[in-house]
């Protein structure tokens, strides 16, 4: 009996590494370490009533961007190419017509926005606008704000906005709060 | 003594591979733990748009994904862009209850951070996306993210248009 027991051969573990490698390669291939990235947007709460009359918001404080179904831009009733939108939006936000924004460097044009905390960008699109174009326009408008914030951060603290501490970031986002309204789709023609 | 030393220098001893399985197992466990199997099978084609002003969505457990695009199986579902909620195609009317259900799964303290990530194809028209946004507003899911791929520079975005 004892002899028999001793005769059982040991299992060869030499191929253990191969098996482990096989599994390893399987998991290496199936692993996806993608982090989801995107444009963060805050929607206004739902209300059954139509939005209040915009009498309080003076027309010069609204920067209207229309995108039609042919993906063409109409900014403040003028045709515009996408690459000019960022600069136009920056001019509008930074205009500082009433002089209450001390950190702004705007041209203080009387017909444009009063100050950055009153300036509203209204993005209106047609139902036929492509999602690609919408994201691009949205991206340019967000880019205008982030460029202004970065410029101010460089002037004030000598560092870009992303590298500031929380205090600095809130101080700057108070100067340039983001007001981008995505209106409900309208038929803007085209 | 001299004789032995001579013999030693002749050939280098082979590197021991006995610890190789251990190393491989360590890597294996690392990848097994970090792997997240794709939770849904995509029924719609999604080619995400590109953008530069992007932010990372770091809490996957607080995020719900809504996919939009034309169906892969055109014989069954046609070629019109559809909305995919989890593993099935839905319509705009299903979005509200879907989002509310998803939000219920999160513990109460973290519900304000609940985010809906819209993964839409570049060819989807804004009409459908606007309808979806209205439904999200009705469901009080106000934090949304338009999922995009990073672009190298803003100039890259102007070129394609």
Give your account of this protein's structure:
The complex is a heterodimer of chains A (190) and B (161). Chain A has 190 residues and is of the alpha/beta class. Helices cover 37% and strands 14% of the residues of chain A. Chain A has a five-stranded mixed beta sheet with strand order 4-3-2-5-6, with helices on one face. In chain A, strand 2 (62-67) and strand 3 (73-75) form a beta hairpin. In chain A, helix 3 (82-93) crosses helix 4 and helix 4 packs across helix 5. The model of chain A has no long low-confidence stretch (mean pLDDT 81). With 161 residues, chain B is α/β, with parallel strands linked by helices. At the A-B interface, helix 2, strand 1, helix 3 and helix 4 of A face helix 2, strand 2, strand 6, helix 5 and strand 7 of B.
What's the quick description here?
The complex is a heterodimer of chains A (190) and B (161). Chain A has 190 residues and is α/β, with parallel strands linked by helices.
Please render the helix and strand layout as text.
The complex is a heterodimer of chains A (190) and B (161).
Chain A: H1 2-7, H2 16-30, E1 37-42, E2 62-67, E3 73-75, E4 78-80, H3 82-93, E5 120-125, H4 131-157, H5 166-175, E6 180-182
Parallel strand pairs in A: 2-5, 5-6
Antiparallel strand pairs in A: 2-3, 3-4
Chain B: H1 2-10, H2 20-34, E1 50-51, E2 55-56, E3 63-69, H3 74-77, E4 82-85, E5 88-90, H4 92-104, E6 115-120, H5 126-138, E7 143-147, E8 149-150, H6 154-160
Parallel strand pairs in B: 1-8, 3-6, 6-7
Antiparallel strand pairs in B: 3-4, 4-5
């Amino acid at each position: 009996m004892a002899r028999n027991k001793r005769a059982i051969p040991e299992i060869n573990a030499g191929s253990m590494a191969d098996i482990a490698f096989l599994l390893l390669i399987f998991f290496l291939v199936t692993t996806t370490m993608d982090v989801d990235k995107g444009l963060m947007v805050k929607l206004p709460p739902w209300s059954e009533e139509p939005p209040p009359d915009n009498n309080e918001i003076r027309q010069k404080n609204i920067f209207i961007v229309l995108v039609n179904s042919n993906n063409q831009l109409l900014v403040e009733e003028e045709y515009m190419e996408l690459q000019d939108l960022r600069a136009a939006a920056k001019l509008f936000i930074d205009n500082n017509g009433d002089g209450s924004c001390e950190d702004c460097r705007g041209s203080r044009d009387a017909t444009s926005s009063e100050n950055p905390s009153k300036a509203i960008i209204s993005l209106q699109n047609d139902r036929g606008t492509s999602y690609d174009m919408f994201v691009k326009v949205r991206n340019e408008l967000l880019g205008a704000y982030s460029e202004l914030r970065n410029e101010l951060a460089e002037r004030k603290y000598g560092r870009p906005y992303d590298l500031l501490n929380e205090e600095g970031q809130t101080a700057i986002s108070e100067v340039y709060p983001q007001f981008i309204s995505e209106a409900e789709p309208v038929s803007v023609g085209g | 003594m001299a004789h032995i030393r001579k013999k030693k220098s002749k050939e280098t001893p082979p590197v021991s591979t006995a610890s190789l399985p251990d190393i491989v197992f360590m890597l294996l466990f690392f990848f097994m733990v970090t792997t997240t199997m794709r939770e849904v099978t995509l029924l719609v084609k999604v080619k995400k748009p590109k953008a530069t002003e992007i932010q990372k969505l770091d809490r996957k457990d607080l995020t719900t994904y809504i996919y939009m695009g034309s169906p892969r199986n055109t014989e069954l579902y046609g070629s019109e862009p559809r909305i995919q909620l989890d593993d099935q195609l839905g319509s705009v009317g299903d979005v509200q209850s879907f989002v509310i259900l998803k939000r219920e799964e999160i513990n109460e303290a973290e519900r304000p951070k609940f985010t809906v990530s819209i993964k839409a194809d570049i060819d989807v028209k804004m009409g459908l996306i606007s309808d979806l946004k209205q439904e999200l507003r009705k469901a009080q899911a106000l934090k949304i993210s338009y999922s995009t791929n990073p672009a190298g520079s803003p100039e890259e975005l102007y070129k394609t248009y």
